[in-house]
């Protein structure tokens, strides 16, 4: 694969993929669909590019992908993918692959079919419009707070570095940006969206607004 390096991470990744391709699936275990070559790297939805992984295996493979890709552009995409996997319900941090597997398995069990409280229902056009308007108001207020600077240190953020390390910043967001060479203006734009990835591969998501 032209996007991948020849490191130990690439070898480990394909070792996992190849060993899981032809295994018998246990009906009692929850599996997730994984694109061997990610869609953002030109992969497809064809059967030969898909493999069923446990949530833990899925999380581990995405951490390996982050270390496998060659260019900053692709590391940015992989960082954003693992960032989205690494933030759980109510945006709390998922510390590791075991936590991710536990949360995903429970969600699958409790929110599937008739167990889902919204089962068989649909949102009305009125509610969909309301959701949209409330979202715009929320992110508008968030952007304003960054502009004033008064509430910068009152929120919690999850940052993921280009090499996959996660940091929760509860205070001193400006100091964190300065220490790690992050542009405050770029971070502000990401905060407005709720999440984002910088040009140098850092990913950030708002974890909790205080």
Features:
Arc Repressor Mutant, subunit A; four-stranded antiparallel sheet; alpha+beta; globular; two-stranded antiparallel sheet; 7 helices; 210 residues; 2 domains
What does the secondary structure layout of this molecule look like, with pairings?
Layout: H1 8-21, E1 32-35, E2 50-53, H2 55-68, H3 72-85, H4 97-110, H5 125-148, E3 156-160, E4 166-169, H6 173-179, H7 184-193, E5 195-197, E6 203-208
Helix pairs in contact: 1-2, 2-3, 2-4, 5-7
Q: What do these coordinates show?
A:
This protein is α+β, with helices and mostly antiparallel strands and 210 residues long. The chain has two domains: 8-110, no CATH class; 125-208, Orthogonal Bundle (Arc Repressor Mutant, subunit A). It has helices spanning 8-21, 55-68, 72-85, 97-110, 125-148, 173-179, 184-193, and strands at 32-35, 50-53, 156-160, 166-169, 195-197, 203-208. Strands 4-3-6-5 form a four-stranded antiparallel beta sheet, with helices on both faces. It has a two-stranded antiparallel sheet with strand order 1-2. α1 runs antiparallel to α2 (55-68), α2 (55-68) packs across α4 (97-110) and α5 (125-148) packs antiparallel against α7 (184-193). The chain starts with 7 loop residues before the first helix and ends with a strand. Residues 88-93 and 142-153 have low confidence and may be disordered.
């Amino acid at each position: 694969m032209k996007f991948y390096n020849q490191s130990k991470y690439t070898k480990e990744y394909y070792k996992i993929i190849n060993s899981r391709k032809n295994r018998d699936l246990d009906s009692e275990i929850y599996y997730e669909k994984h694109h061997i070559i990610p869609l953002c790297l030109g992969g497809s939805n064809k059967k030969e590019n898909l493999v069923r992984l446990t949530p833990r295996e899925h999380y581990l493979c995405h951490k390996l992908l982050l270390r496998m890709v060659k260019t900053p552009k692709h590391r940015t995409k992989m960082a954003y993918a693992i960032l989205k996997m690494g933030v759980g319900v109510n945006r709390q941090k998922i510390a590791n692959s075991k936590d991710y597997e536990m949360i995903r398995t429970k969600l699958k069990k409790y929110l599937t079919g008739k167990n889902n409280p919204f089962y068989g229902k649909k949102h009305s056009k009125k509610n969909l419009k309301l959701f949209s308007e409330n979202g715009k108001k929320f992110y508008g207020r968030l952007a304003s707070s960054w502009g004033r600077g008064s509430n910068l240190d009152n929120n919690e953020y999850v940052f993921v570095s280009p090499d996959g390390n996660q940091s929760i910043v509860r205070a001193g967001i400006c100091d964190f940006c300065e220490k790690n060479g992050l542009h405050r203006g770029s971070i502000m734009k990401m905060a407005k969206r709720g999440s984002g990835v910088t040009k140098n591969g850092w990913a950030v998501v708002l974890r909790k607004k205080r």
